Protein backbone atom coordinates (compact mmCIF):
# COMPACT_ATOMS: atom_id res chain seq x y z
CA UNK A 1 0.00 0.00 0.00
CA UNK A 2 2.86 2.35 0.77
CA UNK A 3 4.36 1.72 -2.70
CA UNK A 4 0.96 2.34 -4.29
CA UNK A 5 0.51 5.65 -2.45
CA UNK A 6 3.97 6.80 -3.49
CA UNK A 7 3.30 5.75 -7.07
CA UNK A 8 0.12 7.85 -7.13
CA UNK A 9 1.98 10.96 -5.94
CA UNK A 10 4.73 10.39 -8.52
CA UNK A 11 2.09 9.94 -11.25
CA UNK A 12 0.48 13.29 -10.46
CA UNK A 13 3.92 14.92 -10.46
CA UNK A 14 4.80 13.96 -14.04
CA UNK A 15 3.49 17.14 -15.78
CA UNK A 16 5.91 19.28 -13.75
CA UNK A 17 5.03 18.99 -10.06
CA UNK A 18 7.38 18.04 -7.25
CA UNK A 19 7.39 15.00 -4.96
CA UNK A 20 9.30 15.16 -1.70
CA UNK A 21 9.91 11.98 0.27
CA UNK A 22 9.94 13.15 3.89
CA UNK A 23 10.63 9.68 5.23
CA UNK A 24 7.47 9.68 7.33
CA UNK A 25 5.22 10.87 4.46
CA UNK A 26 5.24 11.96 0.82
CA UNK A 27 4.52 15.54 -0.24
CA UNK A 28 3.04 16.42 -3.63
CA UNK A 29 3.67 20.10 -4.40
CA UNK A 30 2.77 22.34 -7.34
CA UNK A 31 4.75 25.57 -7.50
CA UNK A 32 2.28 27.20 -9.88
CA UNK A 33 -1.11 26.01 -8.67
CA UNK A 34 -2.63 26.62 -5.22
CA UNK A 35 -5.35 23.99 -5.76
CA UNK A 36 -5.24 21.67 -2.70
CA UNK A 37 -5.58 18.57 -4.90
CA UNK A 38 -2.05 19.18 -6.21
CA UNK A 39 -0.61 20.12 -2.80
CA UNK A 40 -0.97 17.39 -0.23
CA UNK A 41 0.67 14.97 2.16
CA UNK A 42 0.05 11.24 1.74
CA UNK A 43 1.54 7.87 2.71
CA UNK A 44 1.60 9.26 6.26
CA UNK A 45 3.40 7.09 8.82
CA UNK A 46 3.67 9.13 12.01
CA UNK A 47 4.51 7.97 15.56
CA UNK A 48 1.81 6.52 17.78
CA UNK A 49 3.12 8.31 20.89
CA UNK A 50 1.65 11.74 21.52
CA UNK A 51 4.93 13.61 21.70
CA UNK A 52 6.22 12.15 18.45
CA UNK A 53 2.90 12.79 16.71
CA UNK A 54 2.76 16.40 17.90
CA UNK A 55 6.30 16.99 16.64
CA UNK A 56 5.34 15.74 13.17
CA UNK A 57 2.22 17.91 13.23
CA UNK A 58 4.20 21.05 14.03
CA UNK A 59 6.73 20.22 11.29
CA UNK A 60 3.95 19.63 8.77
CA UNK A 61 2.14 22.88 9.54
CA UNK A 62 5.44 24.76 9.24
CA UNK A 63 6.16 23.04 5.91
CA UNK A 64 2.81 24.01 4.37
CA UNK A 65 3.19 27.56 5.73
CA UNK A 66 6.63 27.85 4.09
CA UNK A 67 5.09 26.74 0.78
CA UNK A 68 2.12 29.09 1.09
CA UNK A 69 -0.35 26.22 0.87
CA UNK A 70 -3.25 25.09 3.05
CA UNK A 71 -2.32 21.97 5.09
CA UNK A 72 -3.83 19.00 3.28
CA UNK A 73 -3.57 15.31 4.18
CA UNK A 74 -4.75 12.19 2.36
CA UNK A 75 -4.77 9.43 4.99
CA UNK A 76 -4.27 5.88 3.79
CA UNK A 77 -7.37 3.67 3.81
CA UNK A 78 -5.12 1.00 5.36
CA UNK A 79 -1.68 0.87 6.99
CA UNK A 80 -1.54 4.57 7.93
CA UNK A 81 -0.21 5.46 11.36
CA UNK A 82 -0.97 6.24 14.04
CA UNK A 83 -3.98 3.92 14.00
CA UNK A 84 -6.26 6.87 14.87
CA UNK A 85 -4.63 9.34 12.46
CA UNK A 86 -7.95 10.60 11.08
CA UNK A 87 -9.42 11.24 14.52
CA UNK A 88 -6.30 13.11 15.62
CA UNK A 89 -6.27 15.30 12.50
CA UNK A 90 -9.95 16.11 12.94
CA UNK A 91 -9.23 17.11 16.54
CA UNK A 92 -6.52 19.47 15.22
CA UNK A 93 -9.11 21.31 13.12
CA UNK A 94 -8.87 19.49 9.79
CA UNK A 95 -12.18 18.79 8.04
CA UNK A 96 -13.22 16.25 5.43
CA UNK A 97 -13.72 17.82 1.99
CA UNK A 98 -14.78 14.53 0.40
CA UNK A 99 -12.70 11.38 0.42
CA UNK A 100 -12.80 8.27 -1.68
CA UNK A 101 -12.04 4.62 -2.31
CA UNK A 102 -8.79 3.13 -3.54
CA UNK A 103 -9.65 0.29 -5.92
CA UNK A 104 -7.29 -2.38 -7.27
CA UNK A 105 -7.86 -4.56 -10.34
CA UNK A 106 -8.37 -8.15 -9.13
CA UNK A 107 -10.07 -9.66 -12.21
CA UNK A 108 -7.86 -8.86 -15.19
CA UNK A 109 -10.13 -10.64 -17.66
CA UNK A 110 -12.92 -8.13 -16.93
CA UNK A 111 -10.70 -5.21 -17.96
CA UNK A 112 -9.21 -6.58 -21.16
CA UNK A 113 -8.45 -4.67 -24.37
CA UNK A 114 -11.39 -3.27 -26.34
CA UNK A 115 -12.46 -5.55 -29.19
CA UNK A 116 -13.73 -3.86 -32.36
CA UNK A 117 -16.83 -6.07 -32.50
CA UNK A 118 -18.11 -4.72 -29.17
CA UNK A 119 -17.84 -1.04 -30.14
CA UNK A 120 -21.27 0.35 -31.18
CA UNK A 121 -21.73 1.97 -34.60
CA UNK A 122 -20.62 5.61 -34.65
CA UNK A 123 -18.33 5.12 -31.63
CA UNK A 124 -14.53 5.29 -31.87
CA UNK A 125 -12.07 4.44 -29.10
CA UNK A 126 -8.76 6.10 -29.87
CA UNK A 127 -5.35 6.23 -28.20
CA UNK A 128 -4.08 9.82 -28.06
CA UNK A 129 -0.45 9.92 -29.20
CA UNK A 130 2.25 12.44 -29.97
CA UNK A 131 1.97 11.35 -33.59
CA UNK A 132 -1.68 12.42 -33.67
CA UNK A 133 -2.35 14.96 -36.41
CA UNK A 134 -3.84 17.41 -33.90
CA UNK A 135 -2.64 16.54 -30.35
CA UNK A 136 -3.53 20.02 -29.06
CA UNK A 137 -7.11 19.52 -30.22
CA UNK A 138 -7.24 16.08 -28.58
CA UNK A 139 -5.91 17.45 -25.28
CA UNK A 140 -8.39 20.30 -25.33
CA UNK A 141 -11.24 17.89 -26.08
CA UNK A 142 -10.24 15.71 -23.11
CA UNK A 143 -10.01 18.77 -20.85
CA UNK A 144 -13.52 19.78 -21.91
CA UNK A 145 -14.83 16.32 -21.05
CA UNK A 146 -13.25 16.44 -17.58
CA UNK A 147 -14.53 19.94 -16.82
CA UNK A 148 -18.07 18.83 -17.65
CA UNK A 149 -17.83 15.40 -16.03
CA UNK A 150 -16.49 16.62 -12.68
CA UNK A 151 -18.20 20.00 -12.49
CA UNK A 152 -14.81 21.72 -12.51
CA UNK A 153 -14.83 25.48 -12.95
CA UNK A 154 -14.55 26.36 -16.67
CA UNK A 155 -11.47 28.50 -16.02
CA UNK A 156 -9.60 25.30 -15.09
CA UNK A 157 -9.99 23.93 -18.62
CA UNK A 158 -6.82 25.55 -19.98
CA UNK A 159 -4.76 24.22 -17.06
CA UNK A 160 -6.15 20.70 -17.55
CA UNK A 161 -5.41 20.86 -21.27
CA UNK A 162 -1.85 22.07 -20.59
CA UNK A 163 -1.28 19.14 -18.21
CA UNK A 164 -2.54 16.69 -20.81
CA UNK A 165 -0.37 18.22 -23.54
CA UNK A 166 2.69 17.89 -21.31
CA UNK A 167 1.72 14.23 -20.82
CA UNK A 168 1.63 13.43 -24.53
CA UNK A 169 5.38 13.07 -24.85
CA UNK A 170 5.84 10.86 -21.79
CA UNK A 171 6.10 7.14 -22.56
CA UNK A 172 4.70 6.27 -19.13
CA UNK A 173 1.34 7.84 -19.90
CA UNK A 174 -1.49 6.46 -22.06
CA UNK A 175 -4.47 8.63 -22.96
CA UNK A 176 -7.66 7.39 -24.59
CA UNK A 177 -10.50 9.36 -26.15
CA UNK A 178 -13.96 8.06 -27.07
CA UNK A 179 -15.99 9.89 -29.70
CA UNK A 180 -19.57 9.46 -30.87
CA UNK A 181 -20.02 10.50 -34.49
CA UNK A 182 -16.83 12.52 -34.13
CA UNK A 183 -17.97 14.32 -30.96
CA UNK A 184 -15.66 13.94 -27.92
CA UNK A 185 -17.65 11.97 -25.32
CA UNK A 186 -15.39 10.19 -22.78
CA UNK A 187 -11.73 9.83 -21.86
CA UNK A 188 -9.27 8.12 -19.52
CA UNK A 189 -5.60 8.24 -18.56
CA UNK A 190 -3.26 5.50 -17.35
CA UNK A 191 0.21 6.07 -15.91
CA UNK A 192 2.48 3.01 -15.84
CA UNK A 193 5.90 2.60 -14.22
CA UNK A 194 7.58 0.76 -11.32
CA UNK A 195 5.11 -2.13 -11.51
CA UNK A 196 1.92 -0.08 -11.14
CA UNK A 197 -0.65 1.44 -13.49
CA UNK A 198 -2.61 4.36 -12.04
CA UNK A 199 -5.92 5.07 -13.82
CA UNK A 200 -7.17 8.66 -13.58
CA UNK A 201 -8.97 11.42 -15.51
CA UNK A 202 -11.84 9.08 -16.38
CA UNK A 203 -14.92 11.06 -17.36
CA UNK A 204 -17.97 11.13 -19.61
CA UNK A 205 -19.90 14.17 -20.76
CA UNK A 206 -23.41 14.30 -19.36
CA UNK A 207 -25.16 13.90 -22.73
CA UNK A 208 -23.35 10.61 -23.35
CA UNK A 209 -23.66 8.90 -19.99
CA UNK A 210 -25.22 5.48 -19.53
CA UNK A 211 -23.65 3.98 -22.67
CA UNK A 212 -20.60 2.32 -21.12
CA UNK A 213 -18.16 4.80 -22.67
CA UNK A 214 -16.10 5.37 -19.52
CA UNK A 215 -15.50 1.62 -19.32
CA UNK A 216 -14.31 1.56 -22.95
CA UNK A 217 -11.98 4.51 -22.35
CA UNK A 218 -10.59 2.91 -19.18
CA UNK A 219 -9.95 -0.44 -20.85
CA UNK A 220 -8.22 1.22 -23.80
CA UNK A 221 -5.93 3.28 -21.56
CA UNK A 222 -5.11 0.31 -19.30
CA UNK A 223 -4.37 -1.94 -22.29
CA UNK A 224 -2.04 0.68 -23.77
CA UNK A 225 -0.13 1.06 -20.51
CA UNK A 226 0.09 -2.60 -19.58
CA UNK A 227 1.04 -3.53 -23.14
CA UNK A 228 4.43 -2.00 -22.38
CA UNK A 229 4.99 -3.66 -19.02
CA UNK A 230 2.93 -5.89 -16.66
CA UNK A 231 1.65 -3.90 -13.71
CA UNK A 232 -0.80 -3.81 -10.81
CA UNK A 233 -3.69 -1.54 -11.85
CA UNK A 234 -5.44 0.77 -9.38
CA UNK A 235 -7.56 3.93 -9.27
CA UNK A 236 -9.47 6.24 -6.93
CA UNK A 237 -13.22 6.89 -6.79
CA UNK A 238 -14.87 9.74 -4.90
CA UNK A 239 -17.01 8.68 -1.95
CA UNK A 240 -20.69 8.52 -2.82
CA UNK A 241 -20.11 8.06 -6.56
CA UNK A 242 -22.23 4.91 -6.75
CA UNK A 243 -22.35 4.92 -10.56
CA UNK A 244 -18.55 4.91 -10.87
CA UNK A 245 -18.22 2.21 -8.20
CA UNK A 246 -20.59 0.00 -10.22
CA UNK A 247 -18.61 0.60 -13.42
CA UNK A 248 -15.31 -0.34 -11.82
CA UNK A 249 -16.83 -3.32 -10.06
CA UNK A 250 -17.91 -4.64 -13.46
CA UNK A 251 -14.39 -4.00 -14.76
CA UNK A 252 -12.94 -6.24 -12.06
CA UNK A 253 -11.80 -3.66 -9.49
CA UNK A 254 -12.26 -4.11 -5.74
CA UNK A 255 -12.08 -1.46 -3.01
CA UNK A 256 -9.07 -1.63 -0.73
CA UNK A 257 -10.78 0.83 1.61
CA UNK A 258 -12.25 4.31 1.94
CA UNK A 259 -10.61 7.31 3.56
CA UNK A 260 -11.41 11.02 4.03
CA UNK A 261 -9.66 13.96 2.36
CA UNK A 262 -8.58 16.30 5.17
CA UNK A 263 -7.95 20.02 4.73
CA UNK A 264 -7.07 22.70 7.30
CA UNK A 265 -8.10 26.22 6.30
Description:
The structure is a single chain. The protein has helices spanning 2-13, 50-67, 85-91, 135-150, 157-167, 213-226, 242-250; strands spanning 18-21, 26-29, 40-42, 72-74, 95-96, 100-105, 123-128, 173-180, 183-193, 196-204, 232-238, 253-259, 262-263. It is built from seven helices and 13 strands. By secondary structure, the chain is α+β, with helices and mostly antiparallel strands. Helix 4 (135-150) packs across helix 5. It is globular and about 65 Å long. It folds into two domains: 2-93, no CATH class; 105-258, Gcn5-related N-acetyltransferase (GNAT) (Aminopeptidase), CATH 3.40.630. The strands form two sheets. The protein has a seven-stranded mixed sheet with strand order 7-8-9-10-11-6-12, sandwiched between helices. The mean pLDDT is 92.
Question: Brief description of this entry?
Answer:
The protein is 33% helix and 27% strand. The protein is α+β, with helices and mostly antiparallel strands.
Amino acid sequence: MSALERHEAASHAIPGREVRDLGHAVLLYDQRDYEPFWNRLQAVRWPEDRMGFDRRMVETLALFASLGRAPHVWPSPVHGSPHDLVARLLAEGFHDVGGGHVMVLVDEAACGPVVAAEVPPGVTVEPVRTSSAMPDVDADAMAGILVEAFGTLPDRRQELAADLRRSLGDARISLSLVRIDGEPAACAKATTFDGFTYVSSVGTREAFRGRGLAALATRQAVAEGRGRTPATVYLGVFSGNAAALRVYDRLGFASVGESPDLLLD
